[in-house]
Amino acid sequence: MDTVAEELTDSKSVKVTHVVARPLDNVWGALMKPQGAAALLGEGGELGNKGEDWRANDGTYGVTRSFHPKEQIRFSWHASEGAPRTLVDLHLRPAGDQTELEIAHEHLPEDADTEELRRRWREVLTRIEEASA
What we know:
The chain is an alpha+beta fold. It is built from 3 helices and 7 strands. The chain has one domain: Alpha-D-Glucose-1,6-Bisphosphate, Chain A, domain 4, CATH 3.30.530. A hairpin with a 3-residue loop joins strand 4 and strand 5. Helix 2 packs antiparallel against helix 3. The protein is globular. Belongs to the AHA1 family. This is Activator of Hsp90 ATPase homologue 1/2-like C-terminal domain-containing protein.
């Protein structure tokens, strides 16, 4: 099921919600594999425990800030070397035999391209869905 339930954008945050037609266990299991981590962070990005650094091949990087299995992953996100630190929060919620995914990207600089970030996170949620199939 490819349903975007909600998208909010303001000058300091972007939020995208997507319902995946897979149970929470399947989606979480996919995120814990290299393909799922790459779907979330970008190719080369690896999810780690709280406090661990990650870096994707596209130059984005950050630190895992919070890791609650089957509920939430929060990480800092820098668009490139020297870019300001922002926070990305992925929440997972069971929705019957489906899973609701919500990404909130917060603490964005005033000049952030929120439309581009919203597009990026919609694509991320679609890739997570594909990885969990």
